[in-house]
């Protein structure tokens, strides 16, 4: 049996080795899920909800241990891991509160003996291939509503967060979700491809554009529901009338939180020339205050990158920006880190005088690096913000709501922010435009997406 090495990205130490689900193993779990799903769908919603409610209680009870596990395998600072788990509890509460009304059959017309109804039927067996950066959030956005709606879930956590994936399975099973209704599949691309080879009723993917395109190629001809939540190159515009200090403090966090490894990290800032210098000064002050350190230490803000190859991506973006005339104001290279040079450490990095010829302003960085570009007016800001194939989030800082609305209504992105950033709400749909993906999670629609509608035309005689 092949084993997956799980390493600590902060220290490079081997944490554990886990058995990999190979093609035959994945096929067996998929067959078992197929057999088990109808009984789960027939289980009254009140019982499915009770399972998820118990799961929530178990996550809350084990929160400290679960946070530590996530921190060990991803390098996410412990405080950020705890934030994620607490936020996840809130998302479960939202899904629990909405499941019944979303699943209810709707009568949309009833007149002169003709009745029209919409029934919501679970998709069946769904696959979920997931990312490591917020494993509880992005995994839970799929498996919690999918299970509530009556689906079986084959969940492939990232190979960089597999212990968290196994913890999810253990707690769901302990909460009463049948073994075969939720299965974790351990492994990397081979396991993901083995999952794609199964008969699925839906494929839900969170990860990079490149893998998303591969999955779309494989799944396209199969006529199976496909959702892709991909990357971003999220812009923000700081207007002339914004308080540059408040905006800088907010955006520094939006860019550097979780070492910039958020799909909705702020990666580009356009600042009106009149507030540029004060903005940059405040941003640098804030970023310098972020403490790099052992991810397990309570006061650490900046941890390592989870994936070592991303260090080279950042170095290439830095070299390209420097060669094209950008000014590096902070960082710009790997950091020694708190473990004597071991681990995937990169200094918080800020550039200004950037432009759109540079990879730093065009390609997802997924690290603690930010580009700042001066603009003269709204039109220029909107043009630059839209100069991307991605469209996940975008923001504007100004005290004037009408001004913010006027700018944001011109920006192509699934989520827009006024005076805030890097924020996700369970009540709102999370969807990318363009290369940021297709489909959505969260909100009431993020429950309905795990069902298919059946239209009933009923004439009484
Ligand atoms: P990734 O594409 O490398 O991996 C994602 C998953 O796909 C992993 O489970 C991996 O094992 C699997 N995989 C890789 N190659 C595969 C293949 N050929 N066939 C089948 N499965 C395969 O992405 P990542 O590094 O895990 O995640 C980072 C990316 O995810 C970033 O681009 C980030 O922006 C994006 N992301 C998006 C959202 C969102 O909501 N839009 C949320 C989190 C992360």
How would you describe this structure to a colleague?
The chain has 461 residues and is an alpha/beta fold. It folds into 2 domains: 3-230 and 436-459, Aldehyde Dehydrogenase, Chain A, domain 1 (3-Layer(aba) Sandwich), CATH 3.40.605.10; 234-425, Aldehyde Dehydrogenase, Chain A, domain 2 (3-Layer(aba) Sandwich). Helices cover 39% and strands 21% of the residues. The protein has helices spanning 23-42, 45-61, 63-74, 78-103, 135-148, 162-174, 189-196, 209-219, 244-256, 276-288, 309-323, 378-385, 401-408, 445-448, and strands at residues 3-7, 14-19, 106-111, 114-122, 125-129, 152-156, 182-184, 202-206, 225-229, 234-238, 266-272, 327-330, 349-352, 369-375, 393-397, 415-418, 437-438, 451-459. The strands form 4 sheets. A 7-stranded mixed β-sheet has the order 12-13-14-11-10-15-16, sandwiched between helices. A 6-stranded mixed β-sheet has the order 7-6-5-8-9-17, sandwiched between helices. Helix 3 packs across helix 4, helix 4 runs parallel beside helix 5 (135-148) and helix 9 (244-256) packs across helix 10. It starts with a strand and ends with a strand. The structure holds nicotinamide-adenine-dinucleotide.
Helix content: 25-40%
Strands, total number: 18
Question: What is the CATH level 1 assignment of the largest domain?
Answer: Alpha Beta
Shape estimate: globular
CATH architecture of the largest domain: 3-Layer(aba) Sandwich
Per CATH, the superfamily of the largest domain is: Aldehyde Dehydrogenase, Chain A, domain 1
Bound molecules: nicotinamide-adenine-dinucleotide
Q: Biggest sheet, strands in spatial order?
A: 12-13-14-11-10-15-16
Q: For the terminal residues, how far apart are their CA atoms?
A: 63 Å
CATH topology of the largest domain: Aldehyde Dehydrogenase, Chain A, domain 1
Major sheet details? 7 strands, mixed
Percentage of residues in strands:
15-25%
* Average pLDDT reading: 98
Count of helical regions = 14
Summed up, the domain count is 2
Structural class, from helix and strand content?
Answer: alpha/beta
Multimeric state: single chain
